[in-house]
Design goal:
By secondary structure, the chain is α/β, with parallel strands linked by helices. The protein has one domain. Helices cover 38% and strands 16% of the residues. The chain has helices spanning 14-22, 77-89, 95-106, 113-128, 146-156, 174-178, 207-214, 218-232; strands at residues 2-6, 25-28, 42-47, 50-55, 58-59, 70-71, 133-136, 161-164, 183-186. The strands form 3 sheets. The protein has a 5-stranded parallel β-sheet, sandwiched between helices. It has a two-stranded antiparallel ribbon with strand order 3-4. The protein starts with a strand and ends with a helix. 34% of the residues are buried.
Length: 233
């Protein structure tokens, strides 16, 4: 059984949804420590001027987990982000189809950054037709860290194969996983090209860039990924 694990990020790139697609169980690592460097409260979209970083304000304390950090709704950032989407994607092919329902999910005042990101990401995954069993690391009360925690979570959900991002190669060792009955594999996703507004293609934008331009066409993502794999053989 394939297991994917990732911290809840704000409207993340398509690669995270590809990891969900490969997973039988996907674990939201919501009790990881919040980081201002990670994409927990920001991501990138494309504008006529190029890449733009969209970020929302939070209320946090040193050492808080993503589940403990709260969005600062009093600053009305949701409305600002929605206006930014409209200004830059109103002419996108699928904007009028996607935006109203997306807006309804987006405008809820969630109690934490983790809850906000999980709700949006599971909603988008569902519209793509991606349906692993979603669980949250906080439900297991596992106190270990880094590689050991990943292995403990895989074992806790009955996983036999862990699908890792390539960035974790620096601290993960395959034998540590196999000694617990889990095979360590690395995701082979590469950024795909698709129709965008505004001049040259920009890779690795937020998933909203894809769904406003292409709708919830997950088959197209899989087709493009397959073409890249075949090209690289």
């Amino acid at each position: 059984m394939n297991v994917g694990i990732h911290q809840p990020d704000y409207i993340p790139w398509l690669g995270l949804f590809y990891k969900m697609y490969l997973s039988d169980v996907f674990i939201h690592l919501d009790d990881a420590q919040y980081s201002n460097e990670a994409a927990h409260n920001y991501n990138r979209i494309k504008t006529p001027q190029g890449e733009f970083r969209l970020k929302f304000p939070v209320e946090q304390h040193l050492g808080d987990t993503i589940l403990q950090v709260r969005p600062r709704y009093g600053l009305r950032w949701q409305e600002k982000h929605l206006r930014t989407f409209e200004m830059n994607y109103a002419k996108a092919r699928y904007f009028k189809d996607v935006f109203p329902e997306f807006r309804d999910v987006f405008m809820v005042e969630y109690p934490s950054v983790a809850e906000l990101n999980i709700a949006i990401n599971e909603y988008i995954a569902g519209r793509f037709g991606i349906a692993p069993r979603f669980v949250r690391s906080s439900d297991f009360g596992i106190g270990t860290r880094r590689e050991e925690k990943v292995i403990d979570l895989c074992v806790a959900v009955g996983g036999t194969r862990y699908i890792s991002g390539t960035g974790a190669r620096v601290y993960q060792q395959a034998e540590h996983f196999t000694s617990r009955g889990v095979e360590l594999t690395y995701m082979d996703y590469q950024p795909i090209a698709y129709p965008q507004l505004w001049k040259d293609f920009l890779p690795c934008m937020s998933v909203v860039d894809y769904i406003f331009n292409c709708g919830y066409d997950w088959d197209n993502v899989l087709k493009k990924v397959k073409e890249l794999h075949e090209r690289d053989r």
